[in-house]
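Duplicate of #3305? Posting structure anyway:
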């Protein structure tokens, strides 16, 4: 496998790679005809795939319904009955895969032993925990909050909810207690699953005290606590119970609840353009179809593969490619608890070597970070088992792509640059490994059965070589979200209004001459900070809640490692209070309100921020300022053009 030759298309486009003969032979898909078949009749194609990939208790009566007048109100597999945990576990156990490893769990502390969990073991745990939840009163359709670090119980909890037809809402464990609370309230969760503490770079972080803040004043009746570190925590007898106590008495088998395909599988909160996070609602059958086929085809998973998706389970990538997808296809995955560079920057590569990882999926931010650490950390380890690499979450720059390809992939692994969103549930634009081509900074083409177009302001399709707005055409992908929890108005306004009849991705893209697509990034006020999604509005809202802040404006600034970092301009109630101490206090306040991932890289105390005559903050100008553009664009429509000079000096001075 090592000496696979890559075909270089021509001298001018040196970096266009095609699959090797070996890859083509092995890949699930290496024949273009799949695209043609899908394009001819996408609904029939996808329905065939839903049938082939998943076990349905009852087949649907209608494959796809889409109301011309309400394009957002589409439905797949109407009347079909399905259970996610049955598809992820029972059917593999029944098919003789009981002893296959479902996942290898690698703890952060190197002195702690890793665990291998087989499909049967996972099945047993999930059945038991589903019975625990049932006893706590969780029924089909009820919402359960999950606030856990990367430990096996997080997968057990998600699968147990799915088994009951209950809806999980996983909250990233590095979000603050306040963020957790907002999400628990919005979802009306009745149970929360959390842990005493978690490890972060060898330190013990008290998660339970955040969880306590999170549940206070909500409708959460029961808190199930996993003992991870065993350190002292506060305990509320009225609500809290240990996971291990509850599991001791739980019955072994829980009948899976088969739900109608369009019933909700999970809610996952993500940042929109306003201050309030949106509860993205995913259905069951459509989502599972997308998860199954994209996992199988993109990562080309076979029985002997070890798949490692490095994303935290608190993000959609963790849901689809660190839980549902690999389990649905019956693969073996790796789950890593720790930070990428703990105890040293060789940790990930040691993990690849130790567990013979074959397919590896991560974000450009991580790649750029490791590039900076230097090749020597990689070279210490044998990465020869790798055969396929994936990238996700933000545009990947040319240099990072080449480094990933050459240093990590040893020049033999294709890079699958997957474009998708929390809203789309699974990948939608990427090259397939047996088809190619693999081109740095280019995601590729639509996943079979899907069609995106790139349009200008007027909604007309751009020509090859041009850029514009990326929008999705009907029929909409089965994995697409089905709404924003309790906010249909926002759902329609945000996604379905600007380009009538289409799904508006809020991303910019360029159409290449060869019909492949290059994603250029968000066109709204959403930032991708180290691959994490944050909105400027959310951060501004958090800052404005600080007692000394009157108003603020946050914009993204390009960053060599993180892609983008937030920069905050803050107008104080009393400008004389400005100090370095206050900056620190505001950072602390942001940690508490959102979480440390939202920390601004710079804070400026200013007298004013540029505004239109109607009082809207002109972020365009601030963005240009922090980018260091000599020309910040027209200030003619501003109410307060004089403030721009002050800001320019400040930013330049900071340099
Ligand atoms: C936004 C969605 C996709 C799951 C994780 C992120 C950006 C995502 C790519 C890519 C360029 C990408 C887009 C998108 N994005 N993948 N391969 N190339 N940009 O999900 O947090 O909902 O963020 O991430 O801007 O809109 P998310």
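Output from current build:
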């Amino acid at each position: 496998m090592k000496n696979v030759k890559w075909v270089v298309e021509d001298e001018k486009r040196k970096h266009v790679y095609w699959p090797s003969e070996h890859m083509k032979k092995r890949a699930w898909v290496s024949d273009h005809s799949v695209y043609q078949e899908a394009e001819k009749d996408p609904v029939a194609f996808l329905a065939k795939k839903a049938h082939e990939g998943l076990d349905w208790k009852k087949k649907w009566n209608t494959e796809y319904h889409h109301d011309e007048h309400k394009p957002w109100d589409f439905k797949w597999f109407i009347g079909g009955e399905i259970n996610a945990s049955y598809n992820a576990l029972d059917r593999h156990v029944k098919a003789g895969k009981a002893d296959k490893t479902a996942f290898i769990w690698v703890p952060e502390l190197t002195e702690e032993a890793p665990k291998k969990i087989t499909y049967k073991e996972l099945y047993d745990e999930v059945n038991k925990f589903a019975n625990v939840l049932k006893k706590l009163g969780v029924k089909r359709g009820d919402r359960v909050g999950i606030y856990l670090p990367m430990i096996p119980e997080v997968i057990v909890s998600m699968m147990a909810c799915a088994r009951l037809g209950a809806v999980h809402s996983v909250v990233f464990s590095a979000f603050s207690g306040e963020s957790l609370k907002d999400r628990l309230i919005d979802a009306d969760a009745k149970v929360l699953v959390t842990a005493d503490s978690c490890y972060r770079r060898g330190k013990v972080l008290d998660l339970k005290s955040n969880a306590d803040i999170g549940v206070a004043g909500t409708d959460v009746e029961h808190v199930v606590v996993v003992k991870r570190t065993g350190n002292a925590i506060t305990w509320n007898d009225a609500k809290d119970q240990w996971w291990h106590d509850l599991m001791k008495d739980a019955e072994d088998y829980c009948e899976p609840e088969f739900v109608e395909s369009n019933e909700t599988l999970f809610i996952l909160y993500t940042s929109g353009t306003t201050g309030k996070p949106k509860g993205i609602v995913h259905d069951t059958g459509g989502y599972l179809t997308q998860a199954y086929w994209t996992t199988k085809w993109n990562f080309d998973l076979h029985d002997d593969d070890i798949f490692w998706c490095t994303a935290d389970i608190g993000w959609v990538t963790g849901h689809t490619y660190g839980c549902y997808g690999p389990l649905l296809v019956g693969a073996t995955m790796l789950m890593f608890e720790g930070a990428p560079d703990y105890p040293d920057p060789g940790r990930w590569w040691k993990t690849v070597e130790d567990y013979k990882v074959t397919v590896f999926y991560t974000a450009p931010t991580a790649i750029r970070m490791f590039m900076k650490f230097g090749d020597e950390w990689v070279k210490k380890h044998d990465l020869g088992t790798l055969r396929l690499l994936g990238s996700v979450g933000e545009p990947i720059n040319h240099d990072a792509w080449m480094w990933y390809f050459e240093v990590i992939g040893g020049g033999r692994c294709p890079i699958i640059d997957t474009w998708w969103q929390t809203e789309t549930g699974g990948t939608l634009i990427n090259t397939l490994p047996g088809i190619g081509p693999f081109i740095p900074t280019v995601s590729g083409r639509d996943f079979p059965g899907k069609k995106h177009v790139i349009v200008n302001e007027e909604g007309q399709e751009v020509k090859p070589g041009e850029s514009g707005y990326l929008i999705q055409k009907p029929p909409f992908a089965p994995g697409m979200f089905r709404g924003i929890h309790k906010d249909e108005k926002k759902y329609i306004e945000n996604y379905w209004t600007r380009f009538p009849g289409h799904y508006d991705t809020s991303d910019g893209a360029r159409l290449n001459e060869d019909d492949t697509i290059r994603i250029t990034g968000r066109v709204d006020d959403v930032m991708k900070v180290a691959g994490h999604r944050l909105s400027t509005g959310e951060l501004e809202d958090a800052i404005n809640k600080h007692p000394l802040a009157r108003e603020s404006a946050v914009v993204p600034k390009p960053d060599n490692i993180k892609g983008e970092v937030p920069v905050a301009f803050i107008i104080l109630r009393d400008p004389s209070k400005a100090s370095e101490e206050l900056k620190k206090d505001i950072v602390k306040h942001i940690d508490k309100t959102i979480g440390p991932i939202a920390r601004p890289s710079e804070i400026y105390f200013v007298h004013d921020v540029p505004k239109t005559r109607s009082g809207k903050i002109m972020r365009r100008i601030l963005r240009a300022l922090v980018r260091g553009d000599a020309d910040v664009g027209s200030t003619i429509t501003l109410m307060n053009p004089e403030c721009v000079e002050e800001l320019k000096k400040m930013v330049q001075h900071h340099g």
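Confirmed duplicate; merging threads. The domain at 530-654 is CATH 3.30.300.30 (GMP Synthetase; Chain A, domain 3). The pocket of WT7 is lined by residues 270, 315-317, 391-395, 417-422, 443, 507, 519, 521-522, 528, 533 (CB under 6 Å).
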